[in-house]
Design brief:
Blueprint: H1 4-59, E1 80-86, H2 96-110, E2 113-119, H3 121-129, E3 136-138, H4 147-162, E4 168-178, E5 181-190, H5 217-295
Parallel strand pairs: 1-2, 1-4, 2-3
Antiparallel strand pairs: 4-5
Helix pairs in contact: 1-5, 4-5
Length: 296
């Protein structure tokens, strides 16, 4: 059995670790609330953009745009597959990073001509360690998702799409379905599918009002898509990933704190037994010594 000093040292070490896990849990919960609040504040703007795109297609269904599949073409385009993967900057978040990296590797292995774009230090280190080339890495984005950073990413992706460096672009991120359920998602950034923008008038509303777009529906789409919709999709994915990371970290830190609590309980029992055994041993030795002295 270990000595009382060794057990006491281990108890002190676990108590310090538990303080760290508790602090990390509280920090993650604060960041999660802030991120969700920011997303809810900006969501109406992007919903309005999506509604306006639907309205454009209701007005001119055959409108031509660089950012959409042609009206008569199925959404299957061979060519360069661009994959934007959003990971974290650090660990301590359970299986959060593992799940997104596993899906990214699977998608990249299936693509004939993949181009990898990475957000997050964990993803960069992971792919570099496996010799997988990264076309572009976006640093200092994950821990502070803002519209400015989303604009930088979105503009770079759109630029490469328009100059035909990329034929299609997909974004891989983690969505927080609930605090206890995180799911890895894949969404197509470009080109967009017209079927996803089918116009459905609100219930109880009469005939839709005719809208005239100046100078043309094509020009309106070409302005809305890169400057609003794509940036909004990237921003939403960044915030969802950040929220999922904090939720996963909260779960991991809560489990670590519970494990530390159980270890402390077990070690306290062991310490008390060792201490009691030492005291009993001392009493026995004193009694034995007294008995020997008495016999003399």
């Amino acid at each position: 059995m270990a000595s009382t000093a060794e057990i006491k040292g281990r108890i002190d070490s676990i108590m310090e670790t538990r303080k760290i896990t508790n602090a990390t849990y509280l920090i993650a919960s604060t960041k999660l609330r802030r991120a969700r609040s920011e997303l809810e504040q900006t969501r109406p703007y992007f919903d309005a953009l999506r509604s306006e795109i639907k309205r454009v297609f209701r007005t001119a269904n055959d409108v031509d745009s660089h950012y959409f599949y042609p009206p008569d073409q199925e959404p299957e385009l061979p060519g360069t597959y661009g994959c934007l993967v959003i990971t974290a900057d650090k660990g301590l978040a359970g299986a959060y990073n593992h799940n997104i990296l596993k899906l990214a590797e699977e998608k990249m292995s299936r693509a004939a001509n993949p181009s990898l774009f990475v957000v997050g230090i964990v993803g960069r280190v992971y792919f570099q360690g496996r010799g997988i080339p990264i076309v572009e890495e976006f640093s200092h984005v994950v821990q502070n998702p803002t519209m400015r950073r989303a604009r930088e990413i979105g503009d770079e992706v759109v630029r490469r799409f328009l100059d035909r460096s990329l034929d299609e672009v997909h974004i891989l991120y983690t969505e927080m379905v609930s605090p206890l359920k995180l799911e890895v998602r894949e969404r197509t950034l470009l080109p967009l599918d017209r079927a996803n923008f089918h116009w459905e008038p609100p219930a109880g509303q009469g005939a839709p009002q005719e809208v005239t777009y100046v100078p043309s529906p094509e020009a309106v789409l070409d302005n809305i898509i890169p400057s609003g919709y794509i940036r909004g999709m990237v921003f939403g994915a960044l915030v969802e990933s950040f929220s999922s990371e904090q939720s996963a970290r909260m779960t991991a830190m809560e489990a670590a704190s519970d494990n530390a609590k159980e270890m402390l309980r077990s070690l306290s029992l062991t310490y008390n037994r060792a201490r009691q055994s030492a005291i009993t041993q001392e009493i026995t030795e004193i009694a034995s010594g007294a008995q020997v002295q008495g016999e003399r």
